[in-house]
Amino acid sequence: MVSISKRRTPNRSRFGDLTNILVLIGFAAFMALPLVFAVNNAFKPLEELFQFPPRFLVRNPTLDNVRDLFALMNASWVPFTRYMFNTVFITLIGTVFHIIVASMAAYVLAKHQFPGKNLFFNIVIMALMFSPHVTAIPNYLIMSRLGWVDTYNALVVPAIAAPLGVFLMKQFMEQIPVSLLESARIDGANEFIVFFRVAMPLVKPAWLTLLIFSFQGLWNLDGGTFVYSEELKTLPTALQQIVATGFSRAGAASAIALFMMIVPLVVFIISQNNVIETMSTSGIKE
Length: 286
Hints:
Blueprint: H1 14-42, H2 46-49, H3 64-75, H4 80-111, H5 117-128, H6 136-146, H7 153-160, H8 163-173, H9 178-186, H10 191-202, H11 204-219, H12 235-243, H13 250-275
Helix pairs in contact: 1-13, 3-13, 4-7, 4-8, 4-11, 5-8, 9-10, 11-13, 12-13
């Protein structure tokens, strides 16, 4: 005899639902305050930027800060488009290859057996514990020996080999049922087809999350001690040089903060629906 279980209904009232919604709205509004503050500062005239006590909302919005920023960038002997190209090139190349390399390494660690597998993954975990300040000197010595100082390689290659991507992707790759991979192999697919057409679509939320992290990190990356040529410097470095000129450029600095925040925010908005979706393999047991 088959018993039909009754569908359970949430044990809460409308008042409880309304309370939850109001609390969530309050938290969302609080978390949006920095974004609103940055947008308002970008359009504040100088007298409002230095007003005390400071005002949260702008009273007399103006585009002078944006005009000042572009005037300063156009006055540079290196065109503004060159800084933009450097940042976009480093961000796109570093992000795409980081996702591919990290996913391939994670796939091998999660779904293949070979000697030294656990040792290799332990090295990846240990690499996450080192601060960039600790590895700054060794990194510079390595780049100098390779002849990569003052080249794109000094910024792109370390981003491709970042250990965070391997660790994140491995955790998701382990959830893929081996039976799905074996079915593809039985149908005649080689490892590259299994990886790109079976494994990668199943972990789409994972590599989209990794895309956001990598894109944000590279978009805000400056040349540091690796890039000295003005023609190879990134946009954040050029904008920091403008801000360093003094208080008279406070308006341009506010426009810079908004400009640097817009692109990663747009990338997150586009990707958020896929990031938060449940994996297609959830609930499947091997």
